[in-house]
């Protein structure tokens, strides 16, 4: 269904309002704002330190030095976020980043060895690569529907854009009046603020593995296998890697273009990156109108293309006004990637390995940023600045064009899952489930058709499936009499699965029935693995058995949690 302009504006406003009303989402999102403001300010400050120490080549090498350890460690450490409370991982990460950045501020203020600043940058970046996987895996747990998750990613994308603007702009202002050490100090304060906010997140999470002896390599490999086994996930991560190569190159280009091509001075590097932030803020507000469009794959492709094409055009139009305008378009692309890319990964990745999938993403991003920074430095030395801008800038548009039709097919798949999620959420016991859990059920649904007058199952049969009615009506028959009539959106069959008893009543198709069926292993693992849905299931079963309790089945026996 197409939405009018007024409907889209209301949906966009609702996206921000829903995050504001939910205290956990609000704290998680503001924590992200603090962490990413710190990241962008830190990046500008480190770039100035590296350029002053060794020019463009040092810029590229420091970029690579920061990212390689992160690329190796991100997938190995991300299993911790799948094993326990993800917000606790975020708090620890933010504290580590704040501490490393604060020490860097002291070293620079005292004119200490530059290699110490580089080492602290590596430590801070390792911690930073764990932040987004844990945060990205936390958001779906705090959401109930795909629309709410898209809304959360819209808000996070907007805050990311604000951070992309505020971090570099803050660095530019501070560099104009103070020095690099003050920029580091402010970045450290922003990280500590993020830790404080995230420590106050409270929610009820599904049970996760918490074995005493984590096997990090094996668990990390499970995340890699989850990506390799899903062509759509693999494609999204490949395009994200291409965007990150361009992003790494931009950290070099922004400094060299500002100082050597546009004569804007050191503060100009912050100004150019702030232009990306301006575009990202505008793009995020525009992206909020896309919630519920069902075309996230297509918009993801557009975002990837916009990360490269404006950089290529900077090589053709090397003027300050043109550079600021073109970099703002890069920011628009960044906003589209934040909305579409992270929402799609959150929809496709299984909850049990979601942080590890995002860890694989961060690993690819980290190594790609490092490669991009070195590539930009090498190309500048080899073919010159303008040709280097064009060569790097064409990478993303070419890949996005090649992936267009695959991403459009992915949109159709997500639309089908949304319809199944909507159906399941009409059943009371499924309503409390977080989005990853209910999507796990939706992916396990199997279609079943039963003609009018035929039995779905008989009283006394072994319970082997749970059913939800997609269309039609069914009669519940116990001891030869009709005790209830069910319609579209009603579910049945849970008593035998939860109590491990024969069917307490039969079900007969009153009209032609179209059903969606769940196997008991999937049903039991999801419903009984999450306390609110388990309580809702218990209440539903007790209510049914209170109306009709066959001989030998007590109305209030506790459900078997292993069913």
Overall morphology: elongated
Please compute the radius of gyration using only Cα atoms.
27 Å
How far from one another are the termini? Answer: 40 Å
Strand content: 5-15%
Order of strands side by side in the largest beta sheet?
1-8-3-6
Largest sheet: 4 strands, antiparallel
Order of helices and strands: HHHHHHHHHHHHHHHHEEEEEEHEEHH
Total strand segments = 8
Count of distinct structural domains: 2
Percent helix, as a range, is over 70%
> Considering the protein shown, what is the CATH homologous superfamily of the largest domain?
MFS general substrate transporter like domains
Distinct helical segment count: 19
Quickly give the CATH architecture of the largest domain. Up-down Bundle
Structure, explained:
A hairpin with a 2-residue loop joins strand 4 and strand 5. The chain starts with a helix and ends in a 16-residue tail after the last helix. The protein folds into two domains: 378 residues, MFS general substrate transporter like domains (Growth Hormone, Chain: A, Up-down Bundle), CATH 1.20.1250.20; 123 residues, Jelly Rolls (Sandwich). The strands form two sheets. It has a four-stranded antiparallel beta sheet. It is built from 19 helices and eight strands. The longest helix has 55 residues. The relative contact order is 0.11. Helices cover 72% and strands 7% of the residues.
């Amino acid at each position: 269904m197409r939405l009018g302009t007024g409907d889209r504006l209301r949906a966009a406003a609702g996206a921000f309002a829903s995050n504001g009303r939910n205290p956990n989402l609000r704290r998680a999102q503001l924590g992200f704002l603090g962490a990413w403001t710190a990241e962008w300010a830190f990046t500008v400050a480190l770039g100035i330190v590296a350029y002053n120490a060794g020019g463009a080549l040092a810029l590229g090498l420091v970029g690579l030095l920061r990212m390689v350890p992160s690329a190796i460690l991100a997938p190995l450490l991300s299993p911790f976020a799948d094993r326990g409370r993800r917000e606790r991982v975020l708090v620890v990460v933010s504290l580590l980043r704040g501490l490393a950045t604060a020490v860097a501020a002291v070293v620079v203020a005292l004119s200490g060895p530059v290699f110490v600043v580089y080492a602290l940058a590596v430590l801070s970046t390792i911690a930073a690569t764990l932040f987004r996987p844990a945060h990205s895996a936390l958001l779906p747990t705090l959401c109930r529907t795909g629309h709410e998750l898209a809304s959360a990613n819209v808000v996070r994308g907007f805050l990311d854009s604000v951070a992309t603007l505020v971090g570099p702009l803050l660095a530019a202002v501070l560099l104009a009046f103070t020095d690099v050490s003050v920029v580091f100090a402010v970045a450290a304060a922003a990280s500590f603020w993020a830790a404080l906010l995230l420590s106050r997140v409270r929610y009820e999470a599904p049970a996760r593995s918490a074995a005493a002896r984590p096997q990090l390599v094996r668990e990390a490999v499970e995340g890699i296998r989850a990506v390799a086994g899903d062509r759509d996930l693999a494609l999204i991560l490949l395009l994200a890697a291409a965007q990150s190569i361009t992003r790494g190159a931009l950290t070099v280009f922004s400094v060299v273009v500002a100082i050597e091509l546009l004569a804007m001075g050191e503060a100009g590097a912050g100004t150019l990156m702030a232009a990306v932030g301006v575009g990202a803020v505008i793009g995020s507000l525009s992206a909020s109108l896309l919630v519920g469009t069902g075309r996230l794959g297509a918009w993801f492709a557009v975002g990837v293309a916009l990360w490269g094409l404006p950089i290529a055009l900077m090589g053709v139009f090397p003027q300050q006004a043109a550079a600021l305008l073109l970099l703002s378009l890069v920011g628009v692309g960044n906003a589209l990637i934040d909305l579409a890319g992270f929402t799609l990964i959150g929809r496709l990745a299984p909850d049990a390995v979601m942080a590890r999938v995002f860890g694989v993403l961060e690993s690819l991003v980290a190594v790609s940023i490092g490669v991009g920074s070195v590539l930009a430095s090498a190309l500048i030395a080899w073919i010159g600045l303008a040709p280097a801008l064009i060569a790097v800038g064409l990478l993303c548009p070419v890949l996005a064009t090649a992936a267009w039709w695959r991403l459009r097919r992915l949109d159709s798949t997500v639309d089908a899952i949304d319809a199944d999620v909507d159906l399941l959420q009409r059943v009371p016991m499924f309503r409390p489930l977080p989005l990853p859990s209910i999507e796990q059920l939706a992916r396990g649904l199997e279609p079943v058709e039963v003609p009018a007058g035929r039995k779905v199952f008989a009283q006394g049969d072994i319970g082997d499936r749970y059913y939800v009615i997609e269309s039609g009506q069914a009669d519940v028959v116990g001891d030869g009499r009709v005790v209830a009539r069910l319609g579209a959106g009603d579910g049945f069959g849970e008593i035998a699965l939860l109590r491990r008893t024969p069917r307490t009543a039969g079900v007969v198709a009153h009209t032609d029935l179209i059903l969606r069926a769940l196997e008991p292993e999937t049903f039991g693992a999801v419903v009984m693995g999450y306390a609110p849905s388990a309580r809702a299931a218990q209440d539903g079963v007790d209510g049914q058995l209170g109306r009709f309790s066959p001989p030998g089945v007590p109305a209030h026996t506790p459900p078997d949690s292993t069913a």
